[in-house]
Amino acid sequence: MIQTRMDGTDRDGKRNKRWMIALTTLIGAALMVAGWRDGNRTSQSHKTSGERIMENASTLHSAHLRVARPTDDLAAVVRFYRDGLGFAVLYEFKDHDGFDGVMLGHSGAAYHLEFTRRAGHSAGRAPTEDNLLVFYLPDARQWQNAVKRLESHGYHAVKSFNPYWDKQGKTFEDPDGYRVVLQNASWPTT
Predict the structure, then answer these.
(1) Which of 16, 41, 102, 187 is the most exposed place for a label (fewest CB within 10 A)?
(2) Comparing C-alpha atoms, which of 6, 1, 3 is closest to residue 132?
(3) Cα–Cα distance between 62 and 56 in angstroms, integer?
(4) What are the beta bridge partners of residue 45?
(5) CA of 165: how far to CAs of 34, 87, 122, 189, in Å?
(6) CB atoms within 10 A of CB 172
């Protein structure tokens, strides 16, 4: 089986044409579902392409986000996010079409994480040190508690690939090499 990275390349850095075709098809299908055809929306053809894209994207503001990825060690990843970061197990499944998985998050939050494992399939490690989930914690006490919680479970901060994240935050690496930044700052809401 050929393993394809998130950027569409295989282990030798060569482009995987099937992966790129699948990605293009998926993006095209998503645009068709949203009512786009050949870059135009029939009822809004007088608007510029950028205006149409931004207007259409704004409909996602109420969507729930699931970030899903495979892992080679489901138990270790669950410990990192559940015990280290305090996520709750929202749902688990076993042997669903050959996959085991766990969804972690916080009740009522607009996002959750899903980790899956397929027997006999190697997911591999993060493709770079700059694959991040960033959590903005503007309250200093909450930020310190989140950092202490990870450290108390044996996880240690690592130097960020991008030094920006070390200025107001701490970066931790999960068992698969993906990184989580706890940023002691707020994210602008407007």
Answers:
(1) 187
(2) 6
(3) 13
(4) none
(5) 35, 22, 30, 20
(6) 20
Q: With 80 as the cut, is the pLDDT of residue 11 above it?
A: no
Helix H or strand E encompassing 105: strand 99-105
Q: Which residues of the chain does CATH 3.10.180.10 include?
A: 64-124, 126-190
Q: Return the bridge partners of 170, or none.
A: 182
Residues 68-103 as b or e (16 or more Cβ within 10 Å = b): eebbeebeebbbbbeebbebeeeeeeeeeeeebbbb
Q: Write the DSSP symbol of residue 177.
A: S
Which residue carries 């729930």 as its tokens?
64
Q: Of 149, 108, 65, which is closest to residue 182 (Cα–Cα)? A: 149
Contact 181, 170 (CB under 8 A): yes
Fold adopted by 126-190: 2,3-Dihydroxybiphenyl 1,2-Dioxygenase; domain 1 (3.10.180)
Write down how long the chain is.
Answer: 190
pLDDT for residue 164 is more than 70? yes
